[in-house]
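User: New here, any thoughts?
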Amino acid sequence: MQYLLIGIILILALFAIRLSKQHGIPALLLFILLGMGFGLLGLDFQDFQLADGLATVALMVIMFYGGFGTNWKMAKPVAKEAIILSFLGVITTALLTGLFCHFVLGFGMMEAMLVGSIVGSTDFASVSNILRSKNLNLKYNTASLLELESGSNDPTAYTMTMVFLSVIIGSDLSVPLLILSQVALGLAVGFVFAFLFSWYLQKQSTQEDGLSAVLMAAAMLITFAAASLIGGNGYLALYILGIYLGNKQFRGKRDIIFFFDGFTEIMQIALFFVLGLLSNIQDFIAAFPVALFIMLFMTLLARPLSVWGLMFPFKLKHKQLGMISLAGIRGAAAIAFAILAVNSGAQFSVDIYHIVFGICVLSSLVQGSLMPTAAKALKMLDPNDTVLQTFNYYQDKAEIGFLETRIHGKSYLVGRQVKDLRLTFDFIVAKIEREGRTVAPRGHITLQEGDLVVLGGEKHFDHTGHDLTEFTIPKGHHWDGKAVKDLDMASDSLVVMVQRNGDEVIVPLGDTQLHAGDKVILLQVEVGSRSSAASSACSDADNYY
């Protein structure tokens, strides 16, 4: 019977995902509501110990795969801001929330600080789910900033939770020593095991036997256990492991991505469903007013004050700061830390689980639902790009890459048949799009003006990440109106592609003129550094924004 029930729950979760995509409701919130619904139907579940174990495993997977999917090349320009928010931002938000709970809501000081610590971090699963499902490619690298911040800030909240729990329980552990060991040992273990497993992956391939995913799961478990055994932060170690390995190229990586794609989805469904099932509707209603006040304070004051205050030296745009402030969604990690507090044996004067649960449900509902609307209202969406490029696993899923080119009227290809193209390299004409319909590229098909030809071939993995630079030409830039042959570039630089009007891709010739708004891709042969002319062009472009 229980297997039938699990199957029904998974089917309903699939419907929840579809509903989320159609109506903009965060999918993870629907999983929670699904669990609460089964609770109302009589499915009784109050095993906090089992829930704690499930939450730990689920967070391990989410933290590791969050790091694994982070595109470091995209995130590096905003790494300072993201790391500051993931550390000092969590601390500031937690302390402000704790003071509010104590002085306004009447919590005891230590309990108030514990609640603030538990809900101090931004939830990666919720943020990444909304960014991907709504394709919210945010300007100024904001999507990468949010991805890196939300993926790396749970360890800070976990450490703060452990500190205040220790104080409440009366443990004789040294708080400074606890914090130092959590952070230092977590970082050390993460980097050591990341290096070791990276070395092993390069030397020993498990692709032929389909065991790459097994090896990665073992690496995840070993790293977490090793960090925890010596007093380090296992979640921080896992995130370091994930981000290090995820930005390496190795055989079998596609197997790992496909496995963890499905496994992470199942773990998220199971975790959020169980968290919803664990809640008692009467206790949830009783805690609702307090949860609402805390959520509103965090959304309107604590998170914005932390973001605007800490980001002031970086001079981010106001609308960007507003978007970052709104994206501070509370979720799975907070509820998991609340379960940890309940299982600690400490006595509390307030219902910590249902207060935290209520905060997360409201945060996901309000902030999660408002993010797409706010991105449009603040004009933060970049229509020329896709947010999926900020996630490694979308770029690494296929070993086949595709290029497309438009057949223009003066092209020598007009009137030629596909069989006469004589593609010297290992490319194939994958399809032809003509007047809104797809044409199968058989040998006798003749190319016409306006055809969009799609070429397929083996994807090239850029191991250095330094050779290609992308920037958009602003109005007034000294390249605006110039032909490619007249650009002041060094001999080691080349304009390899121009994107115009959002969708028109131009393979540049010497007499191709560049215009304001064109997105230019530059190749610089000097590995690890830009040529001076290219650097100057990009720097000048940045100064216009």
Remarks:
- Strands lie at 400-406, 427-434, 437-439, 452-458, 468-472, 493-500, 504-506, 519-524.
- Residues 281-311 form the longest helix (31 residues).
- Residues 110 and 164 are 7 Å apart (CA to CA).
